[in-house]
Amino acid sequence: MVKRNLIANYLGSGWSALMGLVFLPVYIHYLGIEAYGLIGVFASLQVWFLLLDMGLSHTLNREMARFTAGVHTPQSIHNLLKTMEIIYLGVAVLLALLVTGFSGWIATDWLKVQTLSTETVTQALTITGFIIAFRWMETLYRSAIIGLQYQVWLNCATAFFATIRGIGSIAVLAYISPTIQTFFIFQGAVVAIETAVLARQTRQFLPVPPQSPRFSVDALKDIWRFAAGMTTLTLLFTLLTQVDKLLLSTLLPLEQFGYFTLATTLAGAISVLVGPIVNVATPRFTELVAAKDEKTLAEQYHKFAQLLTIVIAPASLILCFFSREIIFLWTRDVATTAAVAPIVSVWVIGTLLNGMMHIPFIAQFAYGWTRLSVIVNSIAVVIIVPAFLILVPRYGVMAAAWIWVAINTGYMLFAISAMHARILKQEKWRWYRADIFGPLLVGLSFAVGMATLAAAQTGMSGLAEAAFLAFGAFLVMIATAAVTQVGRQAMMQAKNILTKFI
After folding, report:
1. Taking phi first (over 0 means left), then psi (-120 to 50 degrees means alpha), and beta for anything else, what does residue 215 get?
2. CB 55 within 8 A of CB 227
3. 230 plus 288 within the same structural domain
4. C-alpha dihedral, 370 to 373 to 379 to 383, nearest 10°
5. Is residue 107 included in any domain, yes or no?
6. Which residues span the domain enclosing 223?
7. What is the mean pLDDT of each run of 10 residues along the chain (502 residues)?
8. pLDDT for res 5
9. What is the pLDDT of residue 47?
10. In this structure, what DSSP letter does residue 51 have?
11. For residue 304, is it within any domain?
12. Which of 62, 166, 350, 464 sits between 20 and 30 A of 371, alpha carbons compared?
């Protein structure tokens, strides 16, 4: 099941990311960079409103995994789902009202709009209020299905709806109306249908309970401690990842904020490679902790950590060293490339370090231990907020990028040591040596070699350049994988399969 879910997650997430990235330059072509900045504002609002989640989606994911391990009965898990649905529905209505009510103020007093009319921005933000409400409900059902480990179905559905949103949006902009309002209306319609499908399927995956599901205060009492810890972590994570966007959205003209959004979107695409592994590892770790199988947990811990490094390190290193070439091939726009590439080259380093921290964090959550993450993130917030307030107004977006790198370096050096003092006590140095720095340094050496070789080449066509970048990414991935146990095993299996066909 682990391999099947992992493959499905990568296919589904990869296709969804492709739909977003491939069509992004087309969105900018039809809408303009300033209107695209509104899409960045919409994405930031979604993240901030995750604060109202109160840790419930992560908790539901964990409890669904515990249900598969036999901790819950069909009745208790249905009661928990029903309870959370009622809470989420109330919050969804609140979100729609909040965004709609404040859309005019955001358009006139918060954003620095230059070419779009205030009426256009207000209407677009009003529509996003309803999209955010549906996205909010969708998160609940996604968490439940991931916890139940029906991830093949979920990724098929995700890929299908991502295709509809991507191709449909282009068709709507090209043949109906090239406006940001039309774009958001279509996106909202697709999200509403997707949410309804996920809600129905969640119940199909659960066994029928003896009695009709009901709202249960007892169900909340059983999970409140873990949910409270996750609520605090969500607050801190939002501050850490969104304070830059909050400040820059009001300090910069909307056009420049659009460039910043484009840069962080491209660098953040690395996170798409993290999600599939996290979604498989989370319920797996939870099951092993519930079964008290620490030996297997340690093996799986290193397996998933190495796999994550093999997947994200090559892509991150190539994007870091070749950001200018990749962005130009993607957008075919010199001005956009010049504005975005320097930010991407730095930001992706922080994203790489942040991605590598996910497996240790999942191990902590599997034990229901959130205190360490709360402490570490609290310290990070105390450092990062003043740093942004002092450095970003003075040095601009590049300061934000380097702060992102610094804070994730701190996680890597200090949070891991603190974690292994309590859980997986014998696994710290193996994590650093075999899972992270060993393969990362080998991959880095090959990436530097590719950059040196590229500097000596002149006059390559776009197709030749794309082929060179693809070959470079493949070479770095092979080099990274070759120094890990998981990578060598995969190579041996691939060799055996090829031998049978030759």
Report:
1. beta
2. yes
3. no
4. -140
5. yes
6. 1-239
7. 64 68 74 74 65 66 77 83 86 85 79 76 86 86 85 86 88 88 89 93 88 79 65 66 68 72 80 82 84 89 93 91 87 83 91 91 85 83 81 81 89 89 90 92 91 77 81 88 86 68 56
8. 66
9. 60
10. G
11. yes
12. 350
Quick one: pLDDT at residue 306?
93
Instruction: Note whether 80 and 60 are within 8 A (CB).
Output: yes
Contacts 24+ apart (CB under 8 A), 2-8: 2/280, 2/284, 4/152, 5/149, 5/151, 5/152, 5/279, 5/280, 6/276, 6/277, 6/280, 8/151, 8/152, 8/154, 8/155, 8/156
Residue 444 backbone class (left: φ over 0; alpha: ψ -120 to 50; beta: rest): alpha
Asked if residue 251 is part of any domain, the answer here is no
Helices (H), 149-216: 151-175, 180-205
Contacts of 492 (CB under 8 A, 6+ apart): none
Residues 276 and 233 in one domain: no
Q: Both 229 and 290 in a single domain?
A: no
> Cα 449 to chain center, whole Å?
30
Name the nearest CA neighbour of 280 among 415, 145, 370. 145
Query: Is residue 453 in a domain?
Result: yes
Helices (DSSP H) in 322-415: which residue ranges? 323-331, 334-356, 358-366, 371-395, 397-410
Measured between alpha carbons, how far is 96 from 102 in angstroms, rounded to an integer?
A: 10
Distance between CA atoms of residues 443 and 482, nearest Å: 10
Q: At what angle do helices 254-268 and 2-31 cross, to 10 degrees?
A: 160
Q: Which region, left, alpha or beta, applies to residue 460 given φ > 0 means left and ψ of -120 to 50 means alpha?
A: beta
* Contact by Cβ (8 Å): 240, 384: yes
Q: Total structural domains in the chain?
A: 2
Helices (H) and strands (E) in the chain, counts: 21, 0
Element (H, E) at 113: none
3-state secondary structure of 70: coil
Do 334 and 224 lie in a common domain?
Answer: no
Cα–Cα dist 494/479, whole Å = 16
And the tokens for 442?
Answer: 């080998």
Which residue's entry shows tokens 């739909």?
19
Q: Are 387 and 405 in contact (CB under 8 A)?
A: no
pLDDT on residue 499: 66
pLDDT computed for residue 271 by the predictor: 79
Model pLDDT, residue 436: 92
143 and 283, same domain (yes or no)? no
Residue 281 phi/psi, 5° resolution?
Answer: -70, -35
d(CA 261, CA 471): 28
